[in-house]
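Assemble and predict.
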Amino acid sequence: MSQFVFKMPDLGEGTVEAEIVAWHTKPGDAVDEDQVIVEVMTDKAAVEVPAPVSGRVVSITGEPGDKVAVGSPLIVFELAAAAVESSAPAATVPSPVQAPSQAPAPAGASAAAATAPRTGRVMTSPANRRRAREAGIDLASIAGSGPGGRILRGDLVAAGGELRAAAGHVSAETSVVRSLVAGPGVSRTVGGTASGEVTEIKVIGLRRLIAERMSEAKRTIPHFAYVEEVDISELESLRAHLNGTLPKGAPTLSYLPFVVLALTRALESFPQCNVRYDAAREVLVRHRAVHVGVATQTPDGLKVPVVRNAQALSLWELGAEIRRVAERARSNKSTRDELVGSTITVTSLGKLGGIASTPVINAPEVAIIGLNKAVERPVVHQGAIAVRRIMNLSSSFDHRFVDGYDAAAMIQLLKDLLEHPAMIFIPKVNSP
Amino acid sequence: MANMNMIQALNSAMDIMLGRDPSVVLLGEDIGYFGGVFRATEGLQRKYGEHRVLDTPIAEGGIVAAAIGMGVNGLRPVAEIQFADYIYPGIDQIASELARLRYRSAGEFFAPVTIRTPCGGGIRGGQTHSQSPEAIFTHVSGLKVVMPSNPHDAKGLLITSIEDDDPVIFFEPKRLYNGPFDGDPNKPAVPWSAHPKGQVNEGYYTVPLGKADVVRRGAQVTVVTYGTMVFVALAAAAALGLDAEIIDLRSLVPLDVDTICTSVKKTGRCVVAHEATRFGGFGAEILALLQEQCFWDLEAPIQRVAGWDTPYPHAFEWEYFPGQERVKKALSLVMEAA
């Protein structure tokens, strides 16, 4: 029998391990080459890993939430040619992988106690496979107490699978467990009355990454928040005019490309805000290029795709690039490289932008610029009450490296550019 | 109703059909004057005449060929092949001509031939009088294949077969001619008169082809079987105290798929038992069917009980015959898996 051990591939610069988010295959499945077999999460991106060969899956390593080192066995295939002639029970075949379960003890622990670690595919009857499927139970997570580690019906029951009704159909009242897959997390609704029902959602994948990074940023970075009001009436007029020149149906410009463009201009004067902090070396790395992270809400959670070299892009190019990276992030198509390397981040909740917010810095950057909702307000303008379009900027700075004075001055420059948008497009004049 | 053994029941079926339908003729070796080596046609030549019940030369190919010719020209022949072991010279006529005639002529011609032939072992008949070649014929498209396990079914199925316009190979498990047999040769023989299925309606009746008989209802395991093995399976399940559902297929083609699958979906466990050799046997077809239709209901791998893959021996008949012990072992195996 010919087996192929597929190891966790190198998923991009400096990746040493990846977290398993979701398996798209299970032992016993036949997979075709290039078929997506597993979704993993590096420190930045969710990556869909395709099968390198066609064959039958013998065993998989790790469960959603487990981290697997690059180069360690991920999945074992029995190659297609061998699979056909093989009639020996798979479990008797020595598997090159002793699945190192980093997962906590499986459910049905009483059954687990008597059982050796399982190698190779899950062994159980077709009827139990169906019961497990109908109950949403992953058989790989259950220890079998039968001969050779076979999962018996009793093991399934212990793990929460329902007993099959006499007629061979699932009866509603015996079905106490239904697991649902919501986004990358796995939730499990534990039965009882509707009012007493709780849903447990495992913090894995992107959500765990977000949680870790948010905690880390808040724990290590002394945030300095600064909110300023910006009169964007002129900007709005320019934006409306530009959008009016577009053919019908073309994607219009939001405020975001204007703000990003203005930001690249402001950062020319405030390079201390366009920085990544290398904590290991205690070095602030100033970047000439401005790689702008665009905080993006996706069905899976917050992602920050990156618009590279924003300082070199025109307004229109920025608009298109922001749309492109955000869309790829939303549709889960971002490559890892598209999600790393930003030097400063912009966050906007659009119509949900509120009056002020306290954005969390996207470490190891040192600044984040938040856009609040643009609204028309009565303000004193040129000595009279006037209706002006006002948008607040809520920004956070790493107070270790950016002093309040500089932070405020940077935002004031940004405000000046946005209030007089022609300035954005006029090259900086060297002081005489 | 009358007590009949299977021979008498078959004789009654042919008697009735000879009387009801002037196109019915019988032909075969020693079936006329002598009344057949197993006496199945005893008295029929005397009653209906030499033009209705014909003795033939010892030439099975010729018997089948003559029957085809009679059938095409409007008769309804019932040919006897003295032992199923002797049927092979007739196979070319059966497979190449009889089975295909309707198809080859686009339905213009047909030959409603029934070929009766005693099959199976357990009678110290050795390798030339004990074979169960049914799978050879179930594999030939265009044939119907029948094997009763008791006098009542034998009569009704034979009448249906004679009336059927398609060719039917009608296997008669000869060990069951005189009584049900549970697989233990050391026990005294039990006559059909002591069994309910030995109570046979003396008149005309039919048993449909393609309808299996659930001879015992049960919930724990399904045994799919036919012919001699029906009673062996009943005894084996009873010995283990299992609540087994025993299905007597009665006709292999057409096959009662619904009854088989309904039962296996209910029990989730199945043993298939037949006397014939195992490799490429009819049981393999049942297993394939169950795999296709009942896979997700299976609690355990399906087991087959069959004859060994050797010619039927004379000296070791009871080692060869798949008796109760082998059925019990298979039942235990399917019950073990959970």
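The CA atoms of residues 243 and 252 of chain A lie 6 Å apart.
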